[in-house]
Design brief:
disordered N terminus, 0% helix
């Protein structure tokens, strides 16, 4: 997993600035995570499994509370203050309801955004195997999920961009041509 964090100018009309870019890389090749990672809740439930191709699969259960929304067992990393971008590649093809691999911008409690690839077959809400961009608050899922079907079993590149109070979600098949999924405030 490669996360790219980049600081942007304050907004339209701002003077051009040299963006400070921080690259963070963790290949999850062993049972000890890099010290930059922090767990929200129960780190004891994660597991590393080495795959035949030499890569490592990191799995941990997402806690589902009574309302189906709870960010426990989320792996966190701090982001810089102000505007930023987070980008990663997810090699994941979901096959059952609510399997989800994503990027999350977490604030606190039940207040977070998640952009990822998931499977969901709820009528009038989901698109099956797709990219979803959700906003979750104490009121549940709000402002739509921007469900976008994809046709690549190989995976997807994901990017979240925060500018001011707005966060835009993007996806790409090859990390060159990006499609905007939607925007949440």
């Amino acid at each position: 997993v490669i996360l790219v964090l980049a600081a942007f100018p304050a907004g339209p009309g701002s003077a051009p600035v040299q963006a400070e870019t921080t690259y963070f890389y963790d290949d999850f090749t062993g049972p000890d995570l890099d010290a930059i990672w922090d767990w929200l809740e129960n780190p004891a439930e994660y597991d590393f499994k080495e795959l035949e191709d030499g890569s490592t699969l990191l799995t941990f259960p997402a806690y589902q509370g009574g309302d189906g929304i709870d960010p426990r067992n989320t792996l966190l990393r701090p982001v810089p203050p102000g505007d930023f971008s987070i980008e990663t590649r997810i090699l994941f093809e979901p096959t059952a309801n609510f399997q989800f691999a994503c990027l999350v911008i977490y604030q606190e409690g039940l207040n977070f955004l998640q952009l990822g690839r998931a499977f969901c077959d709820l009528e009038e809400v989901c698109q099956g195997n797709a990219i979803y961009f959700d906003k979750v608050t104490s009121d549940g899922f709000v402002d739509g999920n921007f469900a976008t079907p994809i046709d690549s079993p190989e995976g997807a590149y994901l990017r979240l961009e925060r500018r001011g109070e707005w966060v835009r979600g993007f996806f790409s098949y090859e990390s060159v041509t990006w499609s905007e999924i939607g925007t949440h405030w």
